[in-house]
Amino acid sequence: MSPLTIPQEKQKSYLRLIRILSVAIPLAVAVLLNPRVPKLQLGEWTKLLPHLNALINTATSVLLVIGYLMIKRGNITAHRRAMQTAFVLGSFFLVSYVLYHLTNESTAFGGAGVSVRTFYYVILVSHIVLSIIVVPFVLLAVYYAWSNQIPRHKRIVKVTYPLWLYVSVTGVIAYLMISPYYQ
User: For residues 44 and 50, what is the distance between their CA atoms, to the nearest angstrom?
Assistant: First the structure.
């Protein structure tokens, strides 16, 4: 599938939607993480979602690296496929993450030792903060690529790519560190 050329008049509405999503997504997640928000009862299967999320984050990380390598080799088609798939997986991750936190309390880290706990919380806090920051960057990078604004796409991915890769990888690290404590 090739990028689209979006008429100038439609670009404003797409950029407005990106701004709305960039605020709405982190706000929705923050509300769901509030322990006072009642949890839905959808069944025990929702306890499997963190494991699925780790697989999605792992696959996303691999696809991001593949996409990077493909563009460096000049293979735009393979780059596009890898990045589109990473974006779709990221969207699935977000739905799964929201569903998990709609139905389950957050899991506390039970690791012992100051250095282990410190490492975990540095990874977790940096992951959370950067996952909020990266949302508009990813949305804009995808928009610029699909609207055939390649110079803008190239400029924004210089920031987006390392942030997105860091968020994906640290999501897996945080999962591996907390997974023994899931009930």
Answer: 12
On whether the pTM is more than 0.85, the answer is: yes
Answer whether 141's CB lies under 8 Å from 70's CB: no
**What tokens does 151 get?**
């110079």
Residues 98, 28 contacting (CB under 8 angstroms): yes
**Cα dihedral across residues 164, 2, 69, 51: positive or negative:** positive
Percentages helix, strand, coil for the chain (3-state, rounded to 5) are 80, 0, 20
Over the stretch 9-36, which tens digit does the pLDDT of each residue have?
788 888 888 999 999 988 888 887 777 8
**Concatenated DSSP letters of 9-73:** HHHHHHHHHHHHHHHHHHHHHHHHH-TTSPPP---GGGGGHHHHHHHHHHHHHHHHHHHHHHHHT
pLDDT recorded at residue 4:
60
Rounded Cα–Cα distance for residues 140 and 124 (Å): 25
Alpha carbons 182 and 109: distance in angstroms, whole number: 9
